[in-house]
Amino acid sequence: MALTVSPVLDFAAANARTTSAGESASHIGRAAPLAVWGMLFVRSGLAIGLQILVAAVVWLVGSADPWRVSADWWLGWFTIANVANLGLLRWLLHREGRRLRDLYRIKRHDLRADLWWVALALVLAGPIGFLPNLLLGQALWGSAQVGQDLSFRALPLAAAILLLLVFPIVQAAAELPTYFGYVMPRLGARYGWGSGAMILAAATLSTQHIFLPLLFDWRFLVWRGLMFVPFALWVGFVIYQRPGTLPYLAVGHGLLDASLPVMVVLASV
Predict the structure, then answer these.
(1) Structure pTM?
(2) 139 Cβ partners below 8 Å, 6+ apart?
(3) To bridge 66 with a disulfide, which of 58, 138, 175, 257 should be the other Cys (CB 3.0-4.6 Å)?
(4) Among 32, 7, 17, which Cα is nearest to 195's?
């Protein structure tokens, strides 16, 4: 009797590079489309929902500009969003018979090749992440500093220091694993999109920054929406080619994002 394989699982097996480390085609095939699409947009949804919630609270206590105050606290409420993101990710993976820590598992049999790609990714990640910020800021305002000043404002120093300790960890654990460890391989397997799944995940990662924080200034929206497009595409490409690089790039991403609460601390002293 000939053995038959479903098209979804056959595609996933034939395109193993879109599959995160240690992940089998059978696990991918169990993911419901609603779960995958929901996780693609959940971070943006959590961001806008929490900004509205914080703004409502500070309005109730008498703030004259609750939306701006809520925006000032975006690293705080996005830390909560990251924790919620991880909870959802854990629950969905459990439904597939997997564990959250499987996303961070190191592929020891391919370690040398993965580390070569990680080194290449990190060497280019700095300029790819920094230059669009600089060039867009210069084009939109005549100075990149304007966007930074709108994004990172003073908080109580104790809160800023706490964010410095917590935010990079939860950000590293949640962001790249969600977009490129969970969503990308499942979109690729279910719809046969291959690199298209990578591009969609990268574009969504980049545009989520419009809501971090959401300010109703068209220049700020353009700046936040476009500044991370090259970075997201580059990191997504590396993980698409070498899924085993995900754990290392997640750590590197957390170290890069540690600069965000540092800027808040500097603004707060």
Answers:
(1) 0.89
(2) none
(3) 58
(4) 17
The residue to which tokens 């961001």 are assigned: 47
And the tokens for 264?
Answer: 């808040």
DSSP 12-79: HHHTGGGS-TT--HHHHHT--HHHHHHHHHHHHHHHHHHHHHHHHHHHHTT-SSHHHHHHHTHHHHHH
* All structural domains of the chain with their residue ranges: 23-97+111-268
Written as six digits, the tokens of 253 are 């991403």
Closest to 115 (Cα-Cα) out of 232, 234, 238, 233: 238
The answer to whether residues 182 and 17 touch, using CB atoms and an 8 Å cutoff, is: no
Could you tell me the two tokens for 87?
């909870």
pLDDT digits (tens, 9 = 90+) for 207-239: 999 999 999 999 999 999 999 999 999 999 999
